[in-house]
Amino acid sequence: MGTLLISKIREEFPDRMMATFSVVPSPGNSDTVVEPYNATLSVHQLVENSDETFCIDNQALYDICMRTLKLSNPSYGDLNHLVSVVMSGITTCLRFPGQLNSDLRKLAVNMVPFPRLHFFMVGFAPLTSRGAHSFRAVSVPELTQQMFDPKNMMAASDFRNGRYLTCSAI
């Protein structure tokens, strides 16, 4: 259903930028048998019809809630809060005026080295839980370290052995 909507929107508005936030399943906490099949079959549509795909992994969301935010039993509300904070952060420049603001087209031009390689892994810092009301100052080196820390990535992968093709701090 989702990929059909994406392809229909692309047909109607071919000149518009299409950004998707795709939650991919993980074998550790999968509820249904068809989740991996749905994710695998949808990748082709995302390659063809999306300009930017922000990948979010269920296992990484659970790990962030349990390890970083110290939630013993995270609810879907906690997971959705993390996703909404990421979506809000990425689209902030579209909603508020400013001199340094960019748009989705500029982000795609700067971040996508080849048209079919438009799958982004999202890191977020500083991470706070929904109920946290305490604030503390974070230095620039500490914030940078948190952004690239695998514990703050929304996709369960170890980035220490790989290379970054492009990187952006928004």
From TrEMBL:
GO terms for cellular component: microtubule. Keywords: Cytoplasm, Cytoskeleton, GTP-binding, Microtubule, Nucleotide-binding. Residues 2-65 form the Tubulin/FtsZ GTPase domain. The keyword Nuclease does not apply. Residues 115-169 form the Tubulin/FtsZ 2-layer sandwich domain. Transmembrane segments: none annotated. The keyword Oxidoreductase does not apply. It comes from the Eukaryota. It holds the Pfam family Tubulin. GO terms for molecular function: GTP binding; GTPase activity; structural constituent of cytoskeleton. It is found in: Cytoplasm, Cytoskeleton. Signal peptide: none annotated. GO terms for biological process: microtubule-based process. Belongs to the tubulin family. Dimer of alpha and beta chains. A typical microtubule is a hollow water-filled tube with an outer diameter of 25 nm and an inner diameter of 15 nM. Alpha-beta heterodimers associate head-to-tail to form protofilaments running lengthwise along the microtubule wall with the beta-tubulin subunit facing the microtubule plus end conferring a structural polarity. Microtubules usually have 13 protofilaments but different protofilament numbers can be found in some organisms and specialized cells. This is Beta-tubulin. It comes from Beauveria bassiana.
